[in-house]
Amino acid sequence: MPASSMVPPIQPGSRVRTRNLFPYLLPRGLREGIEVTVLRANDNSFVVEDDEGRECTVGPLSLDPGEMVWSDGHWVESV
């Protein structure tokens, strides 16, 4: 089966980068471009944790999962 290039799903346990897209600004104290871990997915938001253990609630457009390739049954970073 050929590999396809896509944006991987954001789900609990995912490591993603934050981004600011007006009008969906990041919560105070959460910087743009850092890696966070997704803890929970709600109806229209995600609860994330930064490397210092702070939790924030952000919208889906504030998270960038990057571009990965689905290959052999799992996501791998695109080259």
Rounded Rg? 13 Å
Query: What helical percentage do the residues reach?
Result: under 10%
Unreliable runs: none
Strand content: 35-45%
The outline comes out as globular
Give descriptors for this structure.
five-stranded antiparallel β-sheet, three-stranded antiparallel β-sheet, single chain, globular, 79 residues
Description:
The chain has strands at 4-6, 15-18, 35-41, 46-49, 55-58, 63-64, 68-71, 74-77. It has 79 residues and is an all-beta fold. The strands form two sheets. Strands 5-4-3-2-6 form a five-stranded antiparallel beta sheet, with no helix packed on it. Strands 1-7-8 form a three-stranded antiparallel beta sheet, with no helix packed on it. β4 (46-49) and β5 (55-58) form a beta hairpin. The radius of gyration is 13 Å and the shape is globular. The two termini are 19 Å apart.
What can be said about this structure in brief?
The protein is mostly beta strands.
Topology readout:
Layout lengths: L3 E3 L8 E4 L16 E7 L4 E4 L5 E4 L4 E2 L3 E4 L2 E4 L2
